[in-house]
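Troubleshooting: if your tokenizer reports a length mismatch, compare your output against this known-good record of 250 residues.
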Amino acid sequence: MSQQINLFNPVFLKQKKTFSAVNMVDAMALLLVGIAAFYAYASIETVNLGRQAVETSRQYEQSKARLAETSARYAPKKIDAALDVEVNNLQAQLSARKATLNNLGIGIPAGDASYAEYMRALARQSLGGLWLTGFKVGKGGAEIEITGRALQPELVPSYIRRLRQERALQGRAFDSLSMTQGEGALPADTSRPAGAPASYGYTEFRLGSTHAGRALDGDAEPAGTTAPEQAGDIAQGSRQPAQFPGRGSR
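Known-good structure output:
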């Protein structure tokens, strides 16, 4: 019988060297190539980031300049104290004038004349030698009072007859009349003949009028009384009402 003898001994095999000099050189070469590639890439990225930083900084400065310009253009201006006071004064004057206009046009019952119409009527019927010193409207236009002076007492009834021609005063009655004598001094610079008095006499009168619809509801005068007769009574100092025929009279 044949026998086999194993003469293999691993000790005698050629050992493979992992960290040989060649392998170490190859590894170092690869490592150096990788480092060089990474450095090149990092350098390129650094340059790009630097450029972006410069561009961003430039845009920031431009935006900052535009913001400063816009803020300066639309910044609230300092208020002038004198101008503010003047505006307040003008607003106060405007409010006062509006109130005056409202008082001239309202406050009187519907269908009656306004304050402005009364004053225009008095202005149209001016009479030489007679002038007005006061004019009042009370109780929403139900009462009117006219005060004035006349150089001659006969001018008062003439003035009343002229007033009755005004539409704004039609339908009202002068239910009170007072006349007093007065004396006024002439101005010092008034030229006058020698021996002429330094004063002048006048008649001061006060007329009170109410709406005919109210003044005549109680005691109305007879329909046959005429305006000339009433004017004659007034000239003699009578208290008899001087009626203005109109839409409110009977």
